[in-house]
Amino acid sequence: MAAHADETGSQHYDVLIRGGTVYTGTLDPPIKQDVGIVGDRIKAIGNLDVYADKIINATNCIVTPGFIDIHTHTDLAFLRMSKLKPQAFETPEWKGNHCYIHQGVTTVVTGNCGMGFTDTAKWLDQVNSFKFGTNVYHLMPHGAVRQELFGADQPQELSKNQLASFKSRISDEMEKGAIGLSTGLEYPPGSLASTDELIDLAKVVRRFGGIYTSHMRDESGKANVRGESGVISSIKEVIRIGDEAELPVQISHLKILLPFGTTNALQMIELIESARGKGLDITADQYPYDANSTTINYFLPDKIKTEVSVKPEYKTELGKEKLREAIKEVFRYFPPEKWIICEGEYAGENLKQIGSKRQQEPADIYVELVIREVAPLGIFFTQDMDFIKQLASHDYVFTASDGWTHPSAFGIKAHPRLFGTFIKKIRQFAMDEKIMNMTDVIRSMTSLPASKIGVKKRGMIVEGNYADIAVIDLNKIEAPATYEISEVFSLGVVYLFVNGIMEIENGKATENRGGRALKRSD
Question: pTM of the predicted model, to two decimals?
Fold first, then answer.
């Protein structure tokens, strides 16, 4: 529908958001303004004398661009669900991406950490086939494609022909609309990749104007053979890849994991800022929680683990004993009470609790779980909240959940970041603790990630941009999801528009869905 003048000469809009305090997503100070929507676009901003089919009173609310989550695993959840519970595809909370829209998120990026759909076109077509609740961009997942290309017997070093095949595949996926290449260098087979391999592949991505993102090789403060902490060495590797491939780079879920050693946030900040000062476009993303979540084989040495479990030789009696020895070493700095199991018969319990209940050592419980065909997900209290806050306040650190679409039919306990990341950051970091001001927090969720991945006409409230808009009541804002009770929608987003479609009205999902599958050129 186009705006048109009625008999009085006033413009007529589909939706008028009236009297809200508008944060444009930039550093511009917020100002009380009206926002007029026609179709899927922002038609006008200002003091509007207009008629509209729908008028929203946004007095005492803030109006922001829809949030962009640059780091999700929504596609990975779809891959798992297609095998486990196909009926979940029919649930409104699944197709509507409810855990995200209730946070004000209108766009998600998938394919992170080197995992997910290897066929960009197939995934984006699937998103469009059932009209998803949010827009979707996709990264090409390095590890998943490497597995697909070279099979079970993964090479440590690629031959010339293998590298050529990999580069050709990247070129194909970039042509299909992928926005870049992601790596998961703590997960097989990504952990096998040399820095030189990654540089060569990143150079292909550069030709298409894409980005390189990385779940780094080691996120801990543990000293390596050179006496340098793993996370510092890993940041240096990302910087080298960006420098030599000459493309923008993104550090996924920036953090320091146990053991911290002598590493601190300032060392990481200085390293990143030094690279930025030399002209490298290096940024990072982060969630405001002190626990991470992945499969429980994550903490094992590379020689033991596979992508989803452990190698067959570690499922024998002798192999199980080696697993016990390996995990007891981890327990020395990361005790079993800090491991929550997320799925199966022990969902919601930590390893110490399970051991006590079964009168077994936590190491025995761990071995029993990790040797399954697919090791269960866990939640791990591995971080220091002070470090998180020190990293959050920098304008090259974006807000991102590292989460996924989570229907209750999945049968897996969720990390609260799936339901609360964006609202928690506004509530805690801006409103309560004032670590950041509101303008900077909103910018970290909108225009900054939009600029990084080359999003066009989103991430800012500007005339002509797509109408991805959140109306938020700061008096009601709350992220009630906790580690104990995680599947609770965030509060405060009273209206949400995705491409002009109202997906939340008066705080409740409308079941109308406006999300689109987007390509690098969109």
Answer: 0.96
